[in-house]
Amino acid sequence: MMSSASRTIRLLCLASASPRRRELLAQIGVPHVIVPAEVDEARLPGEPPREYVLRLAREKAVSVRSRRPSEQPVLAADTAVVLEESVLGKPRDEQDALEMLGALGGRTHQVLTAVALAAGGALATALSESTVRLRVVTEAERTAYWRLGEPRDKAGAYAIQGLGAVFVEHLSGSYSGVMGLPLFETAQLLEAAGIPCGPRERIGA
After folding, report:
1. Are 161 and 202 in contact (CB under 8 A)?
2. Catalytic residue among 78, 93, 96, 153
3. Residue 162: inside a domain
């Protein structure tokens, strides 16, 4: 009979404190534990946005893997909102958030989410690219939105899965990727590593 310790070591480790990523993993039936990564998220000079998110996802996975049992797979992700090659991270304060939403309003931007899986001595990555257009957001709406608290820890200062959805005029790509964990790409990485996810028959059913 498998011991409790053996079962625990086979759990996927999610290298993120994001409740959204945790909810998305649970949505596709992947048991996991949370161990937030601690890495410098500063963008390197001249670093292209795609390379930036891929590098951070890899670094997060490797950082947490070094602190976990070697048998435990580690999944990490990083998301960036990109407007004309400018990367918009989490707002520093209210003014920064208002400026971000003002710049994004009435324009199309890209949301890049990279996923990295460290498992079995290998490190695999995938990249999700989505295109989003926000309607023009008035100053009064931006101020009210900030005061509700939702934009404070969101790249680009909006949450597509929350109240910010009312600003989204068009989305082409992955809804879950814009949330922070593209489920199609994540499932492909997990399945390639032998980690079950999604619909499956119960043994003995």
Report:
1. no
2. 78
3. yes
